[in-house]
Specification:
It is a single chain. By secondary structure, this protein is of the alpha/beta class. The chain has one domain: Rossmann fold (3-Layer(aba) Sandwich), CATH 3.40.50.360. It has five helices and eight strands. The chain binds flavin mononucleotide. Flavin mononucleotide (FMN) binds next to loops.
Length: 191
Protein backbone atom coordinates (compact mmCIF):
# COMPACT_ATOMS: atom_id res chain seq x y z
CA UNK A 1 0.00 0.00 0.00
CA UNK A 2 1.26 3.46 -0.89
CA UNK A 3 2.36 5.36 2.22
CA UNK A 4 2.17 9.13 2.45
CA UNK A 5 3.55 11.17 5.37
CA UNK A 6 1.91 14.40 6.49
CA UNK A 7 4.63 16.62 7.94
CA UNK A 8 3.64 19.19 10.58
CA UNK A 9 5.96 22.10 9.82
CA UNK A 10 5.46 24.09 13.03
CA UNK A 11 7.04 23.13 16.35
CA UNK A 12 5.67 25.99 18.47
CA UNK A 13 4.02 25.05 21.80
CA UNK A 14 0.72 26.59 20.66
CA UNK A 15 0.47 26.02 16.94
CA UNK A 16 -2.26 26.32 14.35
CA UNK A 17 -0.42 23.68 12.37
CA UNK A 18 -1.81 20.89 14.51
CA UNK A 19 -5.43 21.68 13.60
CA UNK A 20 -4.56 21.99 9.92
CA UNK A 21 -2.56 18.74 9.87
CA UNK A 22 -5.37 16.91 11.72
CA UNK A 23 -7.81 18.10 9.03
CA UNK A 24 -5.52 16.90 6.23
CA UNK A 25 -5.07 13.57 7.99
CA UNK A 26 -8.80 13.12 8.61
CA UNK A 27 -9.78 13.79 4.97
CA UNK A 28 -6.89 11.73 3.63
CA UNK A 29 -7.67 8.76 5.89
CA UNK A 30 -11.10 8.35 4.24
CA UNK A 31 -9.31 7.09 1.15
CA UNK A 32 -8.75 3.43 0.50
CA UNK A 33 -5.99 3.86 -2.09
CA UNK A 34 -3.18 5.01 0.26
CA UNK A 35 -2.19 5.09 3.92
CA UNK A 36 -1.47 8.39 5.64
CA UNK A 37 0.55 9.07 8.78
CA UNK A 38 1.33 12.28 10.67
CA UNK A 39 5.01 13.17 11.04
CA UNK A 40 5.53 15.63 13.87
CA UNK A 41 8.90 17.41 13.88
CA UNK A 42 8.57 17.60 17.67
CA UNK A 43 9.06 13.82 17.74
CA UNK A 44 12.37 14.34 15.90
CA UNK A 45 14.11 17.19 17.76
CA UNK A 46 16.96 17.69 15.32
CA UNK A 47 19.66 20.18 16.35
CA UNK A 48 20.91 22.75 13.85
CA UNK A 49 22.42 20.61 11.09
CA UNK A 50 25.41 18.88 12.71
CA UNK A 51 26.33 16.13 10.23
CA UNK A 52 29.95 16.43 9.06
CA UNK A 53 29.15 15.17 5.54
CA UNK A 54 26.57 16.63 3.13
CA UNK A 55 23.34 14.64 3.07
CA UNK A 56 23.76 13.70 -0.58
CA UNK A 57 26.72 11.50 0.40
CA UNK A 58 24.25 9.35 2.38
CA UNK A 59 26.70 8.70 5.25
CA UNK A 60 25.20 9.73 8.58
CA UNK A 61 27.07 9.93 11.87
CA UNK A 62 24.42 10.85 14.41
CA UNK A 63 21.67 8.68 15.80
CA UNK A 64 19.09 11.48 15.41
CA UNK A 65 19.88 11.62 11.66
CA UNK A 66 19.65 7.84 11.26
CA UNK A 67 16.25 7.85 12.99
CA UNK A 68 14.99 10.74 10.84
CA UNK A 69 16.30 8.98 7.72
CA UNK A 70 14.46 5.76 8.60
CA UNK A 71 11.22 7.64 9.31
CA UNK A 72 11.24 9.69 6.11
CA UNK A 73 12.65 6.96 3.90
CA UNK A 74 9.65 4.72 4.67
CA UNK A 75 7.18 6.93 2.75
CA UNK A 76 6.34 7.10 -0.96
CA UNK A 77 5.20 10.72 -0.84
CA UNK A 78 4.55 13.64 1.48
CA UNK A 79 2.14 16.43 2.27
CA UNK A 80 3.83 19.26 4.11
CA UNK A 81 1.68 21.52 6.30
CA UNK A 82 3.53 24.78 6.70
CA UNK A 83 2.96 28.19 8.25
CA UNK A 84 4.66 31.27 6.85
CA UNK A 85 7.35 32.83 9.06
CA UNK A 86 8.91 36.05 7.80
CA UNK A 87 8.01 35.33 4.21
CA UNK A 88 9.35 31.78 4.16
CA UNK A 89 8.90 28.39 5.83
CA UNK A 90 9.92 27.76 9.48
CA UNK A 91 13.64 27.25 10.09
CA UNK A 92 12.99 23.95 11.90
CA UNK A 93 11.22 22.58 8.82
CA UNK A 94 13.96 23.64 6.40
CA UNK A 95 16.59 22.23 8.78
CA UNK A 96 14.75 18.89 8.79
CA UNK A 97 14.84 18.82 4.98
CA UNK A 98 18.55 19.68 4.90
CA UNK A 99 19.43 16.61 6.99
CA UNK A 100 18.51 14.16 4.20
CA UNK A 101 18.74 13.79 0.44
CA UNK A 102 18.11 10.36 -1.12
CA UNK A 103 15.14 9.81 1.23
CA UNK A 104 13.34 12.73 -0.49
CA UNK A 105 14.52 12.28 -4.07
CA UNK A 106 12.18 10.97 -6.82
CA UNK A 107 9.12 11.26 -4.57
CA UNK A 108 6.14 13.63 -4.76
CA UNK A 109 5.40 16.33 -2.25
CA UNK A 110 2.29 18.50 -1.87
CA UNK A 111 2.04 21.85 -0.11
CA UNK A 112 -0.63 22.98 2.37
CA UNK A 113 0.19 26.43 3.72
CA UNK A 114 -1.50 28.97 5.96
CA UNK A 115 -0.98 32.61 6.86
CA UNK A 116 -2.23 36.12 6.22
CA UNK A 117 -1.90 35.53 2.46
CA UNK A 118 -2.44 31.78 2.68
CA UNK A 119 1.25 31.18 3.37
CA UNK A 120 1.90 31.64 -0.36
CA UNK A 121 5.46 32.87 0.08
CA UNK A 122 6.41 29.94 2.33
CA UNK A 123 4.92 27.54 -0.23
CA UNK A 124 6.90 29.13 -3.06
CA UNK A 125 10.16 28.78 -1.13
CA UNK A 126 9.41 25.13 -0.39
CA UNK A 127 8.48 24.50 -4.04
CA UNK A 128 11.90 25.73 -5.08
CA UNK A 129 13.79 23.89 -2.32
CA UNK A 130 12.00 20.60 -3.01
CA UNK A 131 12.80 20.95 -6.72
CA UNK A 132 16.49 21.12 -5.77
CA UNK A 133 16.03 17.91 -3.78
CA UNK A 134 14.68 16.37 -7.02
CA UNK A 135 11.23 15.94 -5.57
CA UNK A 136 8.13 16.18 -7.73
CA UNK A 137 6.08 19.04 -6.30
CA UNK A 138 2.45 18.49 -7.28
CA UNK A 139 0.64 21.39 -8.93
CA UNK A 140 -2.55 21.45 -6.83
CA UNK A 141 -1.92 23.43 -3.67
CA UNK A 142 -3.97 24.44 -0.61
CA UNK A 143 -3.57 28.02 0.61
CA UNK A 144 -5.43 28.67 3.87
CA UNK A 145 -6.01 32.31 4.69
CA UNK A 146 -6.56 33.82 8.13
CA UNK A 147 -9.25 35.94 6.48
CA UNK A 148 -11.38 33.03 5.29
CA UNK A 149 -10.28 29.72 6.86
CA UNK A 150 -9.72 30.74 10.49
CA UNK A 151 -11.78 32.56 13.11
CA UNK A 152 -9.75 35.03 15.13
CA UNK A 153 -6.56 33.62 13.57
CA UNK A 154 -6.68 30.61 15.91
CA UNK A 155 -9.83 28.53 15.29
CA UNK A 156 -9.46 26.63 12.03
CA UNK A 157 -12.67 26.55 9.95
CA UNK A 158 -11.78 25.42 6.42
CA UNK A 159 -14.06 26.64 3.64
CA UNK A 160 -15.76 24.25 1.21
CA UNK A 161 -13.38 25.54 -1.44
CA UNK A 162 -10.39 24.55 0.69
CA UNK A 163 -11.88 21.07 1.20
CA UNK A 164 -12.24 20.70 -2.58
CA UNK A 165 -8.67 21.93 -3.10
CA UNK A 166 -7.36 19.43 -0.58
CA UNK A 167 -9.14 16.54 -2.31
CA UNK A 168 -7.63 17.56 -5.66
CA UNK A 169 -4.20 17.79 -4.03
CA UNK A 170 -4.60 14.30 -2.52
CA UNK A 171 -5.68 12.81 -5.88
CA UNK A 172 -2.50 14.03 -7.52
CA UNK A 173 -0.23 13.12 -4.59
CA UNK A 174 -1.51 9.53 -4.59
CA UNK A 175 -1.25 9.07 -8.36
CA UNK A 176 2.29 10.49 -8.46
CA UNK A 177 3.29 8.43 -5.41
CA UNK A 178 2.22 5.27 -7.24
CA UNK A 179 3.91 6.28 -10.49
CA UNK A 180 7.20 7.31 -8.89
CA UNK A 181 7.31 4.20 -6.69
CA UNK A 182 7.17 2.12 -9.90
CA UNK A 183 9.87 4.29 -11.44
CA UNK A 184 12.17 3.87 -8.40
CA UNK A 185 11.66 0.09 -8.50
CA UNK A 186 12.56 -0.01 -12.21
CA UNK A 187 15.71 2.01 -11.59
CA UNK A 188 16.70 -0.34 -8.75
CA UNK A 189 16.02 -3.47 -10.83
CA UNK A 190 18.34 -2.38 -13.68
CA UNK A 191 21.16 -1.12 -11.45
C1 LIG B 1 8.28 34.11 13.66
C2 LIG B 1 6.96 34.37 12.99
C3 LIG B 1 6.92 35.03 11.78
C4 LIG B 1 5.72 35.20 11.10
N1 LIG B 1 5.72 35.75 9.85
C5 LIG B 1 4.59 35.68 9.10
C6 LIG B 1 4.62 36.02 7.71
O1 LIG B 1 5.64 36.37 7.15
N2 LIG B 1 3.45 35.92 7.02
C7 LIG B 1 2.28 35.50 7.59
O2 LIG B 1 1.29 35.40 6.90
N3 LIG B 1 2.23 35.20 8.92
C8 LIG B 1 3.35 35.28 9.67
N4 LIG B 1 3.33 34.92 11.00
C9 LIG B 1 2.03 34.54 11.59
C10 LIG B 1 1.82 33.04 11.43
O3 LIG B 1 1.32 32.77 10.14
C11 LIG B 1 0.84 32.54 12.47
O4 LIG B 1 1.33 32.84 13.77
C12 LIG B 1 0.63 31.03 12.35
O5 LIG B 1 -0.35 30.63 13.28
C13 LIG B 1 1.91 30.28 12.61
O6 LIG B 1 1.72 28.92 12.50
P1 LIG B 1 1.80 27.96 13.79
O7 LIG B 1 0.80 28.52 14.79
O8 LIG B 1 1.38 26.61 13.29
O9 LIG B 1 3.21 28.01 14.27
C14 LIG B 1 4.51 34.76 11.70
C15 LIG B 1 4.55 34.13 12.96
C16 LIG B 1 5.75 33.91 13.60
C17 LIG B 1 5.77 33.15 14.90
Amino acid sequence: MTRIGIIIGSTRPVRNGEQVAAWVHELASRRADAEFELIDLRDHPLPHLDEPKPAMWGSYQHEHTKEWSARIGAFDGYVVVTPEYNGTAPGALINAFDYLFAEWTDKPIALVSYGVLGGARAAEQLRSMCGTLQMAVVGPQVLLSFATDFEGQTAFRPTERSVAMLNTLLDKTISWSNALARMREQVLSVS
